[in-house]
Write a structure and sequence with these properties.
The protein is 54% helix and 15% strand. The protein is built from ten helices and five strands; from the N terminus they run H-H-E-E-H-H-E-H-H-E-E-H-H-H-H. By secondary structure, the protein is α+β, with helices and mostly antiparallel strands. The longest helix has 26 residues. Strand 1 and strand 2 form a beta hairpin. The protein has a five-stranded antiparallel β-sheet with strand order 2-1-5-4-3, with helices on both faces.
Amino acid sequence: MPREQQLSKVFLEVADTLVADFDILEFLQQFTTHCTQLLNVEAAGILLADEQGYLQLLAASDEHSRLLEVFASQHAQGPCVDTFHTGQPLLHVKVADPEVINVWPQFAAAATALGFTTTHAIPLQLRESVIGALGLFQKDPDPLSNEDILLAKALAGMATISILQQRTLAHSEVERSQLQYALTSRIILEQVKGILAERWQVSVDDAFTALRAYARAHHHRLTQLALNITQGTFDTDQIPRPVPPAKTS
C-alpha cells in the first residue's frame, strides 16, 4: 500500500478516537504497526509515564516476549527515558556504540540480542507536557531520511493526542488519571495473557494472538474483553484454543 494511503488510514483511525466508546490499547497496537510500515523500521513501541514518572510499555508493534523485554528495559534507563525527561528526540542512536553501552547497558544488551543496530526515541508531547515516548528500532544500518524523521514526529503527535483525548471524552479527570487508566488497561491485558497461557498450556504470545483474533472477529473491545475475563463474566471456552507447536524429538 502506498505511503499516502497508509497515512490516510492512520488519520481515519485517529478520528475514531473522538468518540467515547474507544479502545486505546487496540488502537495503539495497530498504530505501532503502522509506524513500522510507514517508516520502514523493524519495531515500534509506545511508552507512557506512570504516576511515579517511570515509563511503562503501553503498546508494541509485536507482542512477542523478547521484543517486549527490549521496551521493558527502558523502565528506568534508555533513550526513551532521556527523551521523556528532556522533551527532545534522540535520533540515530547506535546500540553497539561503546558510549551507549556504558550509559544504558541493560537496554543496549537487550536491543543487540535481537539484532537491532539503531534506535530512535521521540517524545509524546503536547505543548510543554511530555507524557511518554515513541521508540523505533532498525536492523538496517542506513539512517532514516529527514522526511522519515519528520513523519515520525508527526506520528508521535497523533499518538499523544489520541491518548489524552480518549479519557477526556468519557470523564472529567485530571491528565495524570487519564494516563493511569491507559496503563491500568495494559496491566489487565498482561494478566489475561498469563491466565490464558496457563489455562491452555501455550506460550503467552500464542495466548495473546488468540485473544486478539477473537476480539476482532466478534467486534469486542480488547480492553473490555480482558476486563470481563479477569472479573469472571466471560467464558474463555468461547475463544478457540490455540494449537501448541508439535514437540520435536
